[in-house]
C-alpha cells in the first residue's frame, strides 16, 4: 500500500500482527449537500416523553 503525505492512516497491532489501513475522509457539509437545490424547511419533531435517564 503506497500512501501519500496527505492521507491519514490507522496502525493496529494484535496477536503479534500489525495492520495499516487508510482512514476514510469525512465529507464536509458543503460536500454532503453539493447539488442540492431544494427548499429546506426545518421542522420540530416531538420525540415524546423521556423514557430513561435522558437529560431534559
How would you classify the helix and strand content by structural class?
mainly beta
Instruction: Name the average pLDDT.
Output: 85
Helix-strand topology string: EEH
Distance between the termini: 49 Å
Query: How would the global form be characterised?
Result: flat
Number of strands: 2
Number of helices, where a helix is a run of at least 4 consecutive DSSP H or I residues: 1
- Unreliable stretches covering 5 or more consecutive residues: none
Strand order of the largest sheet: 1-2
Instruction: Calculate Rg over CA atoms.
Output: 21 Å
Residue fraction in strands? 15-25%
What's the structural blueprint in terms of helices and strands?
Blueprint lengths: L8 E6 L2 E6 L6 H4 L24
Antiparallel strand pairs: 1-2
Describe the protein's architecture and organization.
- With 56 residues, the protein is mainly beta.
- 7% of the residues lie in helices and 21% in strands.
- The chain has one helix at residues 29-32, and strands at residues 9-14, 17-22.
- The chain has a two-stranded antiparallel sheet.
- The chain is flat.
- It starts with 8 loop residues before the first strand and ends in a 24-residue tail after the last helix.
- The model has no long low-confidence stretch (mean pLDDT 85).
How is this structure best summarized?
This protein has 56 residues and is mainly beta. It is built from one helix and two strands, in the order E-E-H. The protein is 7% helix and 21% strand.
